[in-house]
Amino acid sequence: MIKITDTHSHYDDKAFDSDRYELLGTLLSEKCEKIITLGCDLGSSRRSLEIAGKFENVFAAVGVHPENCTDERDDYLRELRTLAMHKKAVAIGEIGLDYHWEGSDRERQIRFFREQPVLAKELGMPVCVHSRDCTKEMLDILREFRPNGVMHCFSGSTEVAKEILSYGMMISFTGLITFKNAKKAAEACAYIPIDRIMLETDSPYMAPVPHRGERNDSGLIIHTAEKLAEIKGLSLEETVRICNENAERFFGLK
Ligand SMILES: [Zn+2]
User: Residue 62 and residue 236: Cα distance in Å, rounded?
Assistant: First the structure.
């Protein structure tokens, strides 16, 4: 039985309200080695820790997502530090920049994105980074910080991947690489050395083909692993073994 570590999910999402704990129990006994669930603001970070606390092999990341920083308290860092010191917290995330929506407060996003890696560094934790429609600004900040981090749900070009790798970061792939229109990301994936790649779902979003558009869960990560194995010309077993090890090492999972 192949069990895959899902390095990025959101089990506090209301999409899981009806079956959260039952689903996680089944996934961990049948399909997943370990699961990391990420907070998107202080409230969801608290809930993520609570979920992680119920399962030996579920871990949490705590952080404020760029889409949530407008509504988050100015002094969020104090509580975030306390949450990050919880024994099931393994990373600061989800953090980053998202310039997709016109009218979002970009200055506040940049402030939050510059502050949280400083806390991560101080606590010796990695960061999980979200980036949408902001490649130049993102790379400028990463070049300066060179965080011990992972660029999640990578959809960029080989050129951008090269930059990110040169900062020492990891890159993780969701079901997006199974989409027909994601040729560019698949090309980048072929270029990136497998010891720098991790697998993730971003559940409940980004369900892979043939489940595109449905509620995603960590069990569907098998389709992304199969696609990665195909791109790399490796067996599924070998691909999963390496990606699971990458996750153990990067997040310091015990
Ligand atoms: Zn996410």
Answer: 31
